[in-house]
Amino acid sequence: MTQVQERTGVATVGGNPVTLLGPEIKVGDQAPDFKVNKDLMTEVSLSDYAGKVKLISVVPSVDTGTCDAQTRRFNVEADKLGDNVAILTISVDLPFALSRFCGAAGIDKVVTLSDYKSRAFGQAYGVLIKEIQLDQRAIFILDENNTVRYVEYITEMKEHPNYDAALEALKELV
Length: 174
Hints:
Blueprint: E1 6-13, E2 16-21, E3 35-37, E4 43-45, E5 53-58, H1 65-78, E6 85-91, H2 95-105, E7 111-114, H3 120-124, E8 128-129, E9 138-142, E10 148-153, H4 163-171
């Protein structure tokens, strides 16, 4: 059994330090593959978005104000980016909650995916919070070949990502 890397002192929740599980992904890395759920029965992986530029928006739960705003912002921006871009929002929310949220919020461009079963995405991308089993807020941008071109780990869960910097990095790839 492989030991999961633990990173402490790099993130907080409400000002309290937490432990992130998994490696720190860096620009230039080959993006790790993952399996997450589109619904209760359907799993998807990175290969399902092959050939596209991908913005992966990681949120702890769409039922919080910051996560809601983050998902809505990228949904609005998705209209301007074309068909070669996939915007994925990943959280540990159950697929039911993601579906309800998307319907109520009019989210129709962003693909919401659930890391609830195995937390494999969170561990592969170094965002799984050991103490509360939620994924820490982060942004990853991958090119068509799954090379990481932009990374932003948000150090305090309640803070917003730098939307402008992420979108600028994304637009450079399309």
